[in-house]
Automatic annotation (TrEMBL):
Gene Ontology biological process terms in this record: cell wall biogenesis; cell wall organization; xyloglucan biosynthetic process
Enzyme class: transferase
Molecular function, one GO term: galactoside 2-alpha-L-fucosyltransferase activity
Family: Belongs to the glycosyltransferase 37 family.
Top-level taxon of the source organism: Eukaryota
The keyword Transferase appears for this protein: yes
Pfam families: XG_FTase
The EC number(s) this enzyme carries: 2.4.1.-
Annotated TM spans: none
Compartment(s) where it occurs, according to its Swiss-Prot or TrEMBL record: Golgi apparatus, Golgi stack membrane
Name of this protein: Fucosyltransferase
Length: 370
């Protein structure tokens, strides 16, 4: 959802039509976002449908490969403008692929009819430090901390299949609570950070650092979104002194099942339920958590990595986000023409990006004041 929203913003900035190539696991999740019987789905019989993941496709049509080869011949402009289709791979750190984020490259791409874009990143923040895009972005998004919220709420309307589950769960378990607390836990390395290590870390965040889960009789509901059941079970059983609080979980799949449609439905249900909470605690570096708190427009508490918990026992278990916006993890590290990125506040007529609270090498949007 992060990369799709970013692609939509890019289409707006460059006067392009956005088409998506969903596989079967993505069908039935979202309604069509555009009116008048228009569709954003790539036709089933389209020439390169389903082929964009192949190495051969990437090798032949890749912008990065083309620029790398052309640089040696000093004919980048001729090579790009003579191409009818280019593949933009924006998920890695290849220096030539990252040349996409330069204004001079964007000028070359204006004459390429078809761009096939693949990414798993929220790359919108970098557009704000590209001089060619900045003025239009300022007109579209005067509030830099609501970019994904506006785009996401327009693009991602869940189907009845998804929304029915969301509504039933909310009405049954969350609606009557005086405060709804969303806890999203993503364990990236279970061997290094087992649930037994994570749980005291979570409780330290929710009770000591943030104070969002005090030992009181306030009617609160805690929604646990995690692939694992242990966190829900421990909290439900009164672990950490939270017995007076209602604790709920929609599902616990055990592990992530990429390409599984039923799994995707459950994940999307959790995202929308989390976005309906009043307070959020989410895992650091988790794109799942980013979508939930950005849709809600909430500044979450980011759980710090407890992998070296013993060494960091005296440090905060979580930190409060400055901005609700998602983090762009793997951005380019060069100057974008005249915009200097030596520090995260640089670029454009006013500083609007900062280093991410949960990943210091990443960038995110914020309404910064200096």
């Amino acid at each position: 959802m992060l990369s799709l929203a970013s692609s939509f913003v890019y289409a707006l900035l460059t006067d392009r039509v956005l088409l998506v190539d969903f596989d079967d696991s993505m069908s039935g999740l979202f309604c069509e976002p555009f009116p008048d019987d228009a569709t954003w789905l790539l036709p089933g019989d389209f020439t390169f449908k389903g082929r964009s993941n192949g190495e051969k496709f990437r090798g032949v049509y890749s912008l990065g490969n083309l620029l790398e080869k052309s640089e040696k011949k000093h004919d980048e402009e001729i090579a790009v403008q003579a191409t009818a289709l280019l593949y933009l791979y924006l998920s890695g750190d290849n220096n030539y692929d990252m040349l996409f984020y330069r204004d001079d490259t964007q000028k070359l791409l204006t004459n390429v009819p078809w761009l096939v874009l693949r990414s798993d990143q929220h790359f919108v923040p970098y557009f704000f430090v590209m001089p060619g895009f900045r003025a239009e972005l300022d007109r579209l998004f005067p509030d830099k901390e609501a970019v994904f919220q506006h785009v996401g709420r327009y693009l991602f309307s869940p189907t009845n299949r998804v929304w029915g589950r969301v509504a039933r769960f909310y009405d049954t378990y969350l609606a009557k609570a005086e405060q709804r607390i969303g806890l999203q836990v993503r364990v990236f390395y279970p061997d290094k950070t087992p649930a037994s290590l994570m749980l005291p870390h979570i409780l330290r965040c929710m009770q000591v650092v943030s104070g969002i889960l005090p030992r009181s009789r306030t009617l609160k509901a805690v929604l646990v979104a995690s692939l694992l059941e242990e966190f829900y079970t421990e909290l439900k059983g009164g672990g950490g002194g939270v017995a007076a609080v209602g604790v709920y979980q929609t599902s616990h799949e055990g592990w992530q099942e990429t390409g599984n449609g039923a799994h995707n439905v459950k994940a999307l249900v959790d995202i929308y339920l989390l976005s309906m909470c009043d307070v959020l605690v989410t895992s650091h570096f988790s794109t799942f958590g980013y979508v939930a708190h950005s849709l809600a427009g909430l500044r979450p508490w980011y759980l710090q990595n407890p992998g070296d918990y013993e060494a960091k026992r005296n440090e905060p278990a979580c930190v409060r986000a400055v901005s609700p916006e998602p983090c762009f993890h793997f951005h380019p590290y060069y100057d974008t023409n005249s915009a200097n990125h030596g520090d995260a506040a640089g670029g454009g007529p006013a500083p609007v990006i900062m280093n991410c609270e949960d990943y210091e090498w990443g960038f995110k949007l914020a309404n910064l004041k200096y």
